[in-house]
Amino acid sequence: MKKTLLLLTFVFLTITLCFGQNKKVPKNLKQAVTFLNSDCSDSLKAIIKLTEDTDLKALSYPWGEYKTINNWTSNDNANSKIVNYLKKQGISYYEETVILIAFKQFLLGQKIDENSIFKPYQVIEKKWAAEDKVRFTSDSLRGVYIPKNLEDCFTQIDSFWPDSTKTKVRQWTEEEFSGRVHLGFGMWMRNNWQLWSGSRLSKYFNSYGIYHPDDMSGIILDSYHRYLNNKAIQFDEQIKFCKDYWEKSEKQDLESKQEEFAEYNVGDTVLFNYNLGYSTPEQEEKDDDDICIAKGKILEKDKVKFMLRVRLIESCDKKGIIYYDNENSQSYNTKTKKWEKPKKRIIKRMKNGQENWFNYGDWQTND
């Protein structure tokens, strides 16, 4: 009860506590603590000191409102110094927790003992690494039982919810039920049944051509509501609805791209959008003031890939423009069975007179 009240108090106070504006990324745990000490408000520090170690993660975004640590460890910073430092210590999933435990020790005037902080989570993550090797066949992941099919999902949900909850669910319409639980229990299913990362349940849905976790959880919820109300599940119809949706969406997306791409013509002058950032801070400042215009000339079009071959004919910076940056790219590692960020960041630039192929969205027509 005490822990719950602390977390609820945090939710109401976050607006006045701290906004997590620290953009510096620490290189190790000691520096992370120093940054947090200057970044956090006294009110948030007080809550951290009273929160159990296992509950600290709930204070950090996206579980809580405090965003600084997430800014250091999110996918956009998957190769940041602190992430790589913790990864060398065997910590890849519990970054927020170990950082906050260290900060809590600091706030309590204790000596920060990295070995004791890391050890329990190293054990967990080592176990998880072993689980990942068999995640598509294992009956449990991260300590949670994974249903093997739709009927098994019903069995599990039946075991979660008391009869009083099931009575309420029966009284709701199917749309009301799905709408009410999609972001609550639905999110729990998507995360804990490993529908995003892959599990035997996601593999089950994949075998029917369903690949998006939202579709999987939607089918489970609609089917469970029908199951409780003794209605036909109509599983095949639900599968078809999802497939038709994505087919229609892909068709509309293709038509939209074709329409947009038709506005670009060989010989046209186009303006660069700086989608991958800037070569220099000065270039960014000038672009903000609309005085850094990079122009190119379309030399060729690839109507299949929606690509443009463009020669840069004008740039406001002698370093040119950035046409490639792998920072936000991912590739599938066949050994780890995961999508991973590149180990080394690569940035490529082009200067006036040089040519390259671009996604058409990197340029805008010069109307």
Keyphrases for this structure?
367 residues, alpha+beta, 3 domains, five-stranded antiparallel sheet, disordered N terminus
Account of the protein in words:
The protein has 15 helices and 11 strands. The strands form 4 sheets. Strands 10-5-4-3-11 form a 5-stranded antiparallel sheet, with no helix packed on it. Strands 1-2 form a two-stranded antiparallel ribbon. It has a two-stranded antiparallel sheet with strand order 6-9. The protein is of the alpha+beta class.
Shape estimate: globular
Number of helices: 15
Mean of the pLDDT scores? 89
Termini gap: 62 Å
Beta-strand residue fraction: 5-15%
| Broad structural category | alpha+beta
Low-pLDDT residue spans: 1-22
What does the largest sheet look like? 5 strands, antiparallel
Listing every helix as H and every strand as E from the N terminus to the C terminus, the arrangement reads HHHHHHHEEHHHHHHHEHEEEEEEEE
User: What is the topology, as strand order, of the major beta sheet?
Assistant: 10-5-4-3-11
The residue fraction in helices comes out at: 40-55%
DSSP strand count: 11
Q: How much is the radius of gyration in Å?
A: 25 Å
Domains, number: 3
